[in-house]
Amino acid sequence: MSDSTFLEPLINLADSAAVTTPEALSLRDQVEEACQAWLTKSPSPATRENYQRDLQQFKAFARIPAGEPELLVRVKPAHVSAWRDQLSKRGLTASSIRRKLTVLRSLYSYLQTYGYAGTNPAHGDFVAVPPVPRDGKTVGLSPEDCRRLLDAPSVSTAAGVRDQALLGVLAYTGCRVGELARITVGDYKTTGGHKILDIVGKGGKCRRVPLHPEAFERLEVWLERAGISDDPNGALFRPAIKPRGKGRHGFADRPMTRRAIQFLVKRYARLVGLERAVSVHSLRVTALTTAREQGCDIIDLQEYAGHSDPRTTLTYIRSRDRLSKSPAYLLRY
């Protein structure tokens, strides 16, 4: 059965005069209001933007015209399954497809809470999501490679001092790139004898992460070099006013962008000869994997990473020595 066959009920409904009746207009207003409430439920602008994009992609696939959100209540599991299959044919990864289906499932769950009496067409009972490898695809670093990356920036320039502190925070807190970009000078604190960072994660959830001595020593050198200790509301990591000046002309009063941070990590990874797949996220994977190998409890790791579910945390743990411990090497015939 083709995608167009799946979509015929929606197309027919869109073309019919029924959608222009007062009842339909009332439903239109209600669904639009519910969709907007669902989007604004998250305090994170990035999350709202991602959810909006995923919803628009599904509506385009399902041929739901702009301005007719009430057609969402006519969506059936077959439409969602067809979208999943199309995304797979386009080459999207299993994790990306799973995330998009989760967004759609979240919308219909919210609509049900809002008063929608129909079923959730994206529910797992109707639409199977593609399996995601337990280890994920993000490259993790060995402790030796992580050390090489941490020591890559030169402290002979102000930008190098900043970069050393930035890499130290990533490696020792396992924070996400968006979280790092949001950290302010005032989020760096001392409490109960601990140097800590207050990190705002997904959904506006705040967690308090103690800093390893190397991380806070690097931070304090950076704060002194940049002269920003008295600016608690300002960004902790800032771009140089003149990029080629390496900080000689000072730093802008704004946070570094995610893209700039990602480029910075990539540049230093290449500088020390690490594989091209190494990314900002690699430092998060490395932190969680290394802590787990040192005996850290999974629940403590979950809190440290800011995950809502420990099963998510487990996907970040890489089994570096799995092959060498394979039963294959124990066989004797």
What do you see in this structure?
The protein is mainly alpha-helical. 50% of the residues lie in helices and 5% in strands. It has 13 helices and 3 strands. It has a 3-stranded antiparallel beta sheet with strand order 1-2-3. Helix 2 crosses helix 5, helix 7 runs antiparallel to helix 9 and helix 7 packs across helix 11. The N terminus is likely disordered.
CATH class of the largest domain equals Mainly Alpha
Structural class category:
mainly alpha
The span between the termini is 52 Å
Beta-strand percentage range? under 5%
According to CATH, the homologous superfamily of the largest domain is: Intergrase catalytic core
How would you sum up this structure in a few lines?
Helices cover 50% and strands 5% of the residues.
Topology:
Blueprint: H1 3-15, H2 22-40, H3 45-61, H4 77-89, H5 94-114, H6 143-150, H7 158-173, H8 177-182, E1 188-191, E2 194-200, E3 206-210, H9 213-226, H10 258-271, H11 280-293, H12 298-305, H13 310-314
Antiparallel strand pairs: 1-2, 2-3
Helix pairs in contact: 2-5, 7-9, 7-11
Short key terms for the protein model shown above:
2 domains, about 325 residues, hpI Integrase, Chain A, globular, mainly alpha
